[in-house]
Write a structure and sequence with these properties.
Distance between the termini: 33 Å
Structural class: mainly beta
Strand content: 35-45%
Largest sheet: 5 strands, mixed
Number of domains: 1
CATH class: Mainly Beta
CATH architecture: 6 Propeller
Radius of gyration: 20 Å
CATH superfamily: TolB, C-terminal domain
CATH topology: Neuraminidase
Helix content: under 10%
Length: 407
Amino acid sequence: MRAVSISSPAKLRPAAMLWAISGAWLSVQAQPLQSESTTTIPVVSHSNNVSPGYAIPQFAVDPAWPALPETWLTGQVPGLAVDKHDNTVWVLHRPASIPNLSLGLTNGSASCCEPAPFVMQFSVEGKLLNSWGGPEGDRPWPENVHGLYVDAEGKVWIGGNGKSDHQIFSYTRDGEFVKAFGEAGKTDGNTSEHYLGNPADIVVDGTDVMIADGYINKRVVRLGKQDLDFVQAWGAWGNAPGGGTREGSFDTSQAASGNGDLSTGAKHFGDIVHCVDKSQDGRIYVCDRRNNRLQIFRKNEEGQVLFEKNLEIAAETGGLGTATDVAFSPDNKYLYVADMMNGRIWILWHDTYEVLGSIGRNGRYAGEFTWLHSIETDKDGNLYTSEVSTGQRVQKFVLTGLSKPDA
């Protein structure tokens, strides 16, 4: 099976205001921005073989997005979603990850600050529209939230990777509990049809709920949307899931690995199956973060999910691994891949997986990333990103236009 590879950026020059492709330097052709505060983010080319016919998206970061109430702080942000119905942006964060010294209003030591609610809904302009979350009343809630999806009916789906988090939950837009799959504290390996093992991500499409069951187990699970009945589970290459399970509970010390633990050709998924997503044309993307790759699948005419392609992402990268999430342009022409370890977003031509360039680098300033976690697009082609560990923020990248090489 042929693998498609994205080269590591380790030896490439830093981002510049101009970028090169096929030997020619190209400038950003920017359109009017939505906000005077936006700052252009250069696209850096990593290939000399890109077709001159491809236009390449250009972005500017809006450091003022979103507009939180003045006393609110966000912690680690492991969940990000765009509601395709009303084009609003949903953010899921971990209030407990905020250092106590920063919560002066909460602990009575200062006039600011306090944790924001777990779930926040924003307009694309950054206005807060709604907020809720946490184990209030009879509402069940993960110990450590991870993954967020808003389906076409407005249901909000959340997973978790805490010690007892072996469930996915769905809620109404206002936070009322709807239903769950799995059971807290119970996991039963990669062949189980009833239990999960620290589910990392969810995508809901048509009649399917697909789960990246991925911090303890090493598989993708497919459920029927109506009753959450088990339909299918698969592992790497579309085979039966295998490779064992993580021993004990996950903690952040296990997030990184040495190069010897990584293999883009591994027979099984690694122990961080980090995302599952579906493009408009039916391709199903699974982030095998531990093995620096995306694996791509598609349903056949009988409705079974089958393997299609192995896509390597900066294959020689160690540490945190690379592929953490994917997103698609509204016209489905571009594939965006979030790369945690290298702190960048890869831009690919979706049909062929050719690498057009990347934006970002590791860092803490606007347009840079610390533990880049999730990525989403809105109907206008703007990008949104989230960061965990000490990153603890979301960012908006405004699509400013396209830059096209001369034919």
